Each structure stands twice: as structure tokens, then as C-alpha cells.
User: What shape does this take?
Amino acid sequence: MNNPFLDRAAPQIAGLTPYVPGKPVTELERELGITDSVKLASNENPLGCGDAARAAYLAEAEELGRYPDGGGFALRAAIAAHHGLAAEQVTLGNGSNDVLDQIARVFLYPGGESIFSEHAFAVYQIATTAVGATPRVAPARDYGHDLEAMAALVSERTGVVWIANPNNPTGTWIAAEPLRDFLSALPEHCIAVVDEAYFEYVEESEYPDTSTWLEHFPNLIVTRTFAKIHGLAALRVGYGLSHPAVAELLNRVRHPFNVNAPAQAAAVAALADREHVRRSLAHNRAELARVRDGLRALGLALIPASVGNFVTVDLGRLAGPINQALLGEGVICRPVANYGLPHHLRISIGLASENDRLLAALAAVLKRTA
Ligand SMILES: *Cc1c(COP(=O)(O)O)cnc(C)c1O
Assistant: This one.
């Protein structure tokens, strides 16, 4: 786009394009004139949130005239207790994306660099570029993070290394031992961010809980979110866990009142509702297996050894036209060409009926376009 205001913007803004979210259901339904579309495009929990979180949210409706607790006392205390950490180690975000942005604004600036992997979550590039720092992208290995290639990019200019574990959109994950070795070798002037947005979905025994590593790595920041398994994507709540001194810096740039009051209340309730997490995990485990089988039965290859509440499937040809045809069937998935994966489509695990719709629509589309 030829934007007449671009030359007045900070120079790095020219290098940015807006994050592309999943297409909203309302938009597709308006376009197609239908009312039964299914959205499998944003890795949301198809069960939504638990009853306790919803009740806590609704109770806040009586107090909408009041500012929230800007320090997030109750939520930070609940998160700290959940992890066995101190409240001073918790930084709240308007979604964990907000925490990623806080990290970039504190530790990156023009002349500094951040390191991430090819195919990694798009926000690392956006947050880095937005503050005028330079992204250094390590080539992926088998779609996943190549920690050796990432380590080779470390220099005195490195401010932040972003690690998505597991990664979105590839679902690839890093085991405890190589990740610990990588962090041990990282110079202390580099902040290491381990983004664990899908933590609760991962059942592999070698998958690490890096929130337990903070005492060994003062330069480590772990991020988590309430948007995925807790089913509170609409409310925008996430958090960072770190050394208290790192949290203190993040809090210097955190917008006041960045997490609204109903969101804080719902998140406290969600964290305590282990039954909803268990139910959501069991649903995902069963339906993920079924969707994977269904996709393989269509002759499609999946990214190997992936985890999470989504699958990324290799269509063996450009995914754009297939995605368009699926939209015509009322099924919204996520093309990932902007992640360097033009032949792949990312599909979130939905309700059983939604997954059936996806598999039937994809079978029909593939047949039609064969
Ligand atoms: C979904 C996701 C997040 C969470 O973002 P929120 O801002 O908390 O909604 C963070 N990182 C990755 C890799 C994700 O896929």
C-alpha cells in the first residue's frame, strides 16, 4: 500500500505488516449468507472457559465504573502460588503477546538484535522490528527450532532470544535436556524468552516446565496465557515469570491497568479450575488423534512429532486456493504462507462435530480440485 503518512513514521515501521488473525466467524457468515460456519483458525479452546471463570467474569459486571487493580494483586498472587514463585516474579499482560511486547520494549532497541527460528510465532518479528531492533532468523531443522543454528547467531548485540515451546504454527517442541544446555551456554546479557502458550496441552515426558528453572537462569522469562487451554481468549490475559529484577523492568513499560477487572477475576477462577483444564486436555487428546487419522486417511502428511491443540498439514500444493474453497464450505482454517509454509494449512482442534465438518469439507474440496 502507498501510505502517504509512512515517511512520517519511525523508519522501522516500513518493515512491518499487521499480524493476520484468523478470519472472524461473523465476517465469513456475512460474506456467504450462512449462519453455521466453524472456526478452526485461532487455536481456541472449543469448550470455551469453565463455569467458575464465567461466573467470576459476570460478577464483575456490577463494578464496570471502577478501574481494575492496576497491580493485579489477587491474580499475581494466584499465579505465584500456582508456580511456587513469588508475586514479584509475575508480570501481567493483556494476553501474553503484551508481555512479549513489554520484553521487546525493555531489552531491544536500534542496534540490538533478537534471535528466533524460521517458522516461529509471528509476534517475535513484529515486536523486534517495532522497536527498531534487528531480527536474526535461524533456519529451521525439520520445521522446528535448530538450537545450534540459533546459538550461532548470538553476539554482543543480542538482546533477546525467542523460543516457542511448542511453536505455533508448526507444533514442534524442544526437550528439557537440549533446552537446558542451550540456556546454560547463553551469555547472561541475553534474555531468553520461552513462550509456553500451549504448555498444558503437551504430555510428552521430556517436555520441560521451564517455570521451575528460573532460579538457575536469571535471564530467563517464561510466558504463559489464559487464551488457550483456559478458554479465555476474548479477555486477553497472559503473564511472564522471571527474576524479580527482570519483572521490575517489564513493569516500568507495562501500561497501567493493562488487564481489565473481569479478565483478572476470570483468570483467578480459571487457574483454580483444574477440572476444566483436565476436561479440555482429554477432549483435545481424543479429537487431535481423530483429526490426525482423518487427515492421513485423505493422504495428507502432518508435521512430525508435533503437539498442541492444532495440526499443521502439508497439502502438497499451494494452500491458498484450498483454504478459499474451505471458506466457501463455511470452514475457517489458517493458511501459514506468511510463516514460510505456503503448502501448509493450520487446523485447530474443535468440537467433534466441527472436526467432522472440517474433514468432510476437506475431502470434498480435495476431490473437486484433484
Ligand atoms: C496463542 C499464542 C500466544 C498467546 O497469545 P495471547 O496474547 O496470550 O492470546 C502466545 N504465543 C504463541 C506461540 C501462541 O500461539
